[in-house]
Amino acid sequence: MKTLYCSLLLLTFSAFSFAQEGEVTINQDKNIDKLLNLYTESNKTSKYYTIQIHSSQSPSKANSEKSNAEGNFPDWFTEISFDQPNYKVRIGKFNTKFEAQQKLIEAHKKYPNAFLIANQREKK
Q1: How far is the CA of 117 from the CAs of 2, 9, 47, 93, in angstroms?
Q2: Residue 108, class by beta-carbon neighbours within 10 Å (0-12 exposed, 13-18 middle, 19+ buried)?
Q3: For the residues 37-65, what does the mean pLDDT come to?
Q4: I want to staple 94 with a disulfide (CB 3.0 to 4.6 A). Which of 37, 39, 49, 101 is the partner?
Q5: How large is the C-alpha radius of gyration of the chain?
Q6: How far is residue 63's CA from residue 88's CA, in Å, rounded to a whole number?
Q7: 57 against 40, higher pLDDT
Q8: What digits encode the pLDDT tens for the residues 53-82?
Q9: What is 68-108 written as a DSSP string?
Q10: Residue among 116, 119, 101 at smallest CA distance from 48
């Protein structure tokens, strides 16, 4: 009998506790926009890492490897760069070395000779 009264009492209080309304007002400092712009600008010149999966003197072979990489890793950035006399196929743009190393493990399953390269972002 005691548990029945306790159960009814708890059900009554829980029914009233779900009826809540509120309004949230966010007061943001005006300098936050300046900080976001500074952060964006600094990221344009900070280092990023890519994974090189292929290098050859043949542009057709490089294009073929790029197509294969786009199929194997569809969500990753892929590019071909020309550094005389070789065409180099690189995948991914990773902000941290740790992230790049984790992705390199994944890339090694398809490209055993892949390795990390630290690049400098171009200022636009």
Answers
A1: 71, 66, 10, 10
A2: middle
A3: 88
A4: 49
A5: 27
A6: 10
A7: 57
A8: 999 999 999 999 999 999 999 999 999 999
A9: HHHHH-TTS-EEEEEETTEEEEEEEEESSHHHHHHHHHHHH
A10: 119
| Tokens matching residue 58 | 């043949």
Asked whether the whole model's pTM tops 0.85, one would answer no
Take residue 39 and report the two structure tokens written for it.
């952060």
Distance (Å, whole) CA 20 – CA 77: 47
Binning pLDDT at 50, 70 and 90, where does residue 106 land? very high
Residue 91: name the closest of 102, 80, 101 by CA: 80
